[in-house]
């Protein structure tokens, strides 16, 4: 069977799309420079959460409660894929009415005797990394 020029172009184009979107476009979620920067920036936050829990018998309602006793305001946090000082213009702390707290770009929510801590970054695609305090591991996911 003879392949036409159009069929060959479609086949090559499809293969190129597959290669760039699935396997050769960049590191998997939770891997690579940006993920490692997020994990490094989260380390002092996780340590501060554990110290707070040891002192108070529970985790804080928001990350703001960690500053300045457990987490100095000079702690570097991940903002837009780069590590920036906590009180830089791009890392203002805010809180939502549901009790979630965003300190830098870390999302935190205290739930019973545990918590959820996560961050997101882009490139390639949109990636999310969540810390599991019970197993002390990061769970990562993402999409293009």
Give a short synopsis of this structure:
Helices cover 30% and strands 29% of the residues.
Summarize the helices and strands and which ones pair or pack.
Layout (H helix, E strand, L loop, with lengths): L4 H19 L9 H24 L19 E4 L2 E4 L8 E2 L5 E3 L2 E6 L2 E9 L3 E7 L4 E7 L1
Antiparallel strand pairs: 1-2, 3-4, 4-5, 5-6, 6-7, 7-8
**What structural class should be given to the helix and strand makeup?**
alpha+beta
Strand line-up of the largest beta sheet: 3-4-5-6-7-8
Could you tell me how far the N terminus lies from the C terminus, measured between alpha carbons in angstroms? 36 Å
Number of strands: 8
Q: Helix fraction?
A: 25-40%
Mean pLDDT: 74
Q: Describe the sheet with the most strands.
A: 6 strands, antiparallel
Query: Approximately how much beta-strand content do the residues carry?
Result: 25-35%
SSE string, helices as H and strands as E: HHEEEEEEEE
What value does the Rg take, in angstroms? 20 Å
Counting DSSP H or I runs of 4 or more residues, the number of helices is: 2
**How many domains would you count in the coordinates?**
1
Poorly predicted segments = 78-103
Spatial shape: elongated
